[in-house]
Amino acid sequence: MSSLQPVSGTAEEILGLLRDWEAAADPPSLVIATSGSTGAPKRVLLSREAMRASALATIERLGGPGHWVLNLPATYVAGVQVLFRSVVSGTTPVLFDESFARTGVRVHGRSFVSLVPTQLVRLLEVPEEVAALASYSAVLVGGGPLDPAVRLRAEEHGISVVQTYGMSETCGGCVYDGVPLDVVEVRIDDGQVLLRGPVLFDGYEGEPDRTAAALRDGWLVTNDLGHLDDLGRLHVEGRADDVIITGGIKVPAGAVARLLEQRPDVEQAVVLGLPDREWGQRVVAVASRRKAQSGVPGDATRGAMTRNSAGSPEPEDAVEWPTGWKPKQVIWVDRMPLLPNGKVDRQALVAMVLEGSP
Fold first, then answer.
1. I need a labelling partner for 179 at 20 to 30 A (CA). Which of 86, 142, 300, 350 fits?
2. pTM for the full model?
């Protein structure tokens, strides 16, 4: 059954509901049920005013309206925004049809699409998809860190990448290439990213304590660490709960993953902190190989694990690891397990690693 409380149904059904919601006199907030990729799922309340503020600011930042292609689940905030931006723009969204090369014949004029980093990495392996993406006015990439080397590779093929940062609580992306949308403010408090503006959520449905903990004097206290450079651009360095304390040393999991992804044979890396009797937590990396290095067909069993005897990447990498940062164990997978919204399913990885532990 289709609904906006929470958002559910097919893309066509949700689009119809959003059109009615936009036209209504005083509609209730829609509800986004989050994936809970790193913790307990939430039901995020988003008002029409917040969604409008986000959609209009995005359209302005991108230089005007255009046609959006939906290639993400319509029930998560990124997919809902593709549909709602279309409603606000007076355009009709185009549903993804097997490939961008095939979908492109139905897209005319200015065009946009939102992807997660894993999707971009895989699409760059297919020449026809690369050519199709290069025809878009902008390819928004969010939902997780984007490897600078992947972005550079895409841009060398003529793809106009825009890296976005945001979350369900901000109606999706609210910082584009480090620069907040015009209605959004960013500040750093003790290394933590805080956001403010009309795009903020109304709270978590039925969870007043959780809502109060997320807001501080009108600012959303994110779970992300970052800094502002001399030009005021935001650089997100990882999640606060991704700091692994091993043997008394604080190890930023995101930074370790980025170091691993600099290796030519690594497509993607996720770093976990797992319980360890000696170290408190041990640093464990899960990595997928680039196709040229994998030696396995693209449709090999997802999640199959292999270990090398030394418990570290092969061939031995040349990274000068800061003290305590080097993973004590590296597990290779054919492909990362993904949630329906395209993000890596970290909880599935933890279960996979623990199940395979001796």
1. 86
2. 0.77
